[in-house]
Specification:
Blueprint: E1 11-14, H1 34-46, E2 49-53, H2 56-66, H3 90-96, H4 99-111, H5 130-142
Parallel strand pairs: 1-2
Length: 147
């Protein structure tokens, strides 16, 4: 209850791309209308789909083939009934990407019988190679996902 996010259990639909496969109207090619898109979104919602993405299928297939139990945990960036564009800031997206990690870490702790209410560290306790750490930070900060 103290988390800044909510958790919903449902089906994730894995598609072959970000645009046509997910019913977006703003891709390079689009052969359907807004009404078609809304009908598609309603149909998959009625089937229990609450999220779409493109990477989980390979992960799930590999785990299944190896006999490893797995799950997919995603952050939903927007409500597709309200539009197709991801307009959240880089800072917000960075914050959101930490939520599944917190959730999975808590689940693992609970499964192992460890206390789950121990606060997470915000930063590593030690930096083993300061020069490499600085280089990685500079490379990371140079990536602009807003453009």
């Amino acid at each position: 209850p103290d988390d800044p996010f909510s958790v919903h259990v449902g089906k994730t639909m894995c598609t072959y791309d970000f645009y046509e496969g997910q019913g977006r109207l703003d891709g390079a090619f689009c052969e359907y209308t807004e009404a078609d898109k809304l009908s598609f979104l309603k149909r998959i919602h009625d089937a229990g789909v609450i999220n779409m993405e493109m990477e989980s299928l390979c992960f799930a297939a590999l785990c299944h083939h190896a006999g490893i139990r797995s799950a997919v945990v995603c952050v939903t960036l927007l409500n597709r009934l309200n539009g197709d564009q991801v307009s959240s800031s880089k800072a917000t997206l960075n914050t959101w990407q930490e939520y599944p990690q917190r959730l999975v870490a808590r689940y693992i702790k609970k499964s192992l019988g460890l206390p789950v209410d121990v606060p997470q560290r915000k930063h590593p306790q030690t930096v083993r190679n300061p020069a490499q750490h600085k280089m990685m930070r500079q490379q990371s900060e140079s990536i602009d996902i807003d453009s």
